[in-house]
Specification:
alpha/beta; 82 residues; Rossmann fold
C-alpha cells in the first residue's frame, strides 16, 4: 500500500464547494472532475438531505460515498446501495 497516495477526498458542500451565496465556481467543478479522472474518488459529506447530496454527486460524476443528513444516511453510488 502506498501510504502517500490520496485515496479519497471527503468534502462538505455549503462553504466548502460553494461560496457564501451557495454558488459553485467552474474551477471547483473542474478540480472535482480532475480528481475523479485521476481515480481519486470524491465523497460528499453534508448535513443536508440525501437527495440534495445525491443530485450534486450525480451532476459532478462523483464516485465516493455520499454521507448525508448528519451521518444518518451513507450511500455507495458505485454499488448503488445504502
Amino acid at each position: 500500500m502506498d501510504v502517500g497516495r490520496i485515496r479519497l477526498l471527503a468534502v462538505d458542500v455549503a462553504g466548502t464547494l460553494t461560496d457564501d451565496r451557495r454558488l459553485i465556481y467552474p474551477e471547483v467543478i473542474y478540480a472535482l472532475r480532475k480528481l475523479e479522472k485521476a481515480e481519486i474518488p470524491v465523497s460528499i459529506v453534508t448535513g443536508n438531505s440525501f437527495m440534495a447530496a445525491y443530485k450534486i454527486a450525480q451532476y459532478f460524476g462523483l464516485t465516493g460515498p455520499i454521507i448525508a443528513e448528519n451521518g444518518g444516511v451513507v450511500y455507495d453510488p458505485v454499488l448503488k446501495k445504502r
